[in-house]
Specification:
With 191 residues, this protein is mostly helical. The protein is built from six helices and two strands, in the order H-H-H-H-E-H-E-H.
Length: 191
């Protein structure tokens, strides 16, 4: 029963791609660069919608692509993996449900693939995307430190007494409703 495994990996990939785009937008904002064209990607489940954005981000920050794994050595390998997943599961339903709303099988009859190979490539890819997201956060933070002007930060309003996560706070100032956080908490949120 590989479908739940594939669905989980596919969903994780979608969420990492969306998080990557958010991190890139924060970085571009700190560098006073033009806004990144996101289009449908931020609300879509289609993985191929992220490809032009990911390529733009990689070029903008000067990153090259080689995950040192067969099938993920080049950006084109990554693109092919995303296109293959999207071809089989465009809206993130095929591996989640056995049939569509009309009762038609979600996957083609006798659909097979190598689950071990798929999982090993996805493990490497998701780890690389996690590191890339943290890298974008760090680059945005470094840019802000170089500017020496935290007043340019975006403000995130949060409920009192809630803690910020690294993802929510990276590169943005945190102001709680009604009061600003104490300096150590503010510094913790900005790291």
């Amino acid at each position: 029963m590989a479908c739940p495994i594939v669905y989980s990996y596919r969903h994780a990939l979608e969420l990492y791609l969306k998080t990557f785009v958010v991190g890139a937008r924060q970085l571009l904002a700190t560098r006073a660069m033009d806004a990144m064209p996101v289009g449908r990607a931020s609300v879509s489940h289609r993985l191929v919608d992220f490809l032009p954005i990911i390529e733009l981000i990689n070029r903008s920050v000067g990153w090259s692509w080689d995950l040192r794994v067969q099938g993920l050595r080049t950006y084109q390998d990554f693109e092919q993996l995303v296109r293959d997943l999207d071809r089989v599961d465009q809206q993130s339903y095929s591996f989640r449900y056995p049939t569509d709303k009309k009762g038609t099988a979600a996957l083609p009859k006798n659909f097979i693939f190598n689950i071990k190979h798929f999982c090993s490539r996805m493990d490497v890819l998701l780890t690389a995307l996690d590191e890339a997201v943290l890298g974008l956060d760090g680059m945005a933070d470094d840019t802000l430190k170089q500017l020496g002007n935290y007043a340019r930060l975006n403000v995130v309003k949060r409920k009192p007494n809630t803690r910020c996560s690294r993802r929510q706070a990276a590169g943005v100032g945190i102001i709680h409703r009604g009061h600003a956080p104490a300096a150590p908490e503010r510094e913790r949120c900005l790291r």
